[in-house]
Design goal:
Layout lengths: L3 E2 L11 E8 L2 E8 L14 H10 L5 E2 H7 L6 H13 L3 E4 L6 E4 L6
Antiparallel strand pairs: 1-3, 2-3, 4-6, 5-6
């Protein structure tokens, strides 16, 4: 589960977030839980806008083939470049794949996935 500190809440509207509180040494801290997936900015290094777009697309369905990921992108790269991006995200542990070649499906790795 990802928690966003109050300083980062500008990206969410009130209808998109659920609020929780805690108090440490008399100081009230507010946390917001996003309703949907928010792609990380960093994962061992900074992620590119394209990598974040891929993660966002994968968050909408349980798994997708490469052609559907490419079709959902605003400015799709070549199949080869997209495959390289997906393999890089897989190496970072953010996505997983099943199947091989044109029959491969890609999915977000959820907490607890092996």
């Amino acid at each position: 589960m990802m928690l966003l500190m109050v300083s980062q809440i500008a990206i969410l509207s009130d209808s998109q977030a659920k609020r929780d509180h805690d108090s440490v040494n008399g100081i009230m801290n507010g946390y917001y839980l996003p309703d949907g997936y928010i792609a990380p900015h960093r994962a061992a290094h900074d992620l590119t806008d394209r990598q974040r777009e891929i993660l966002h697309i994968l968050s909408k369905k349980p798994s997708l083939p490469l052609r559907e990921i490419r079709a959902a992108m605003d400015s799709p790269p070549s199949d080869r470049r997209l495959r390289e991006e997906l393999l890089h995200l897989k190496k970072l542990g953010l996505v997983s794949s099943s199947g091989h070649g044109r029959g491969a499906f890609w999915a977000l790795r959820r907490h607890g996935d092996e």
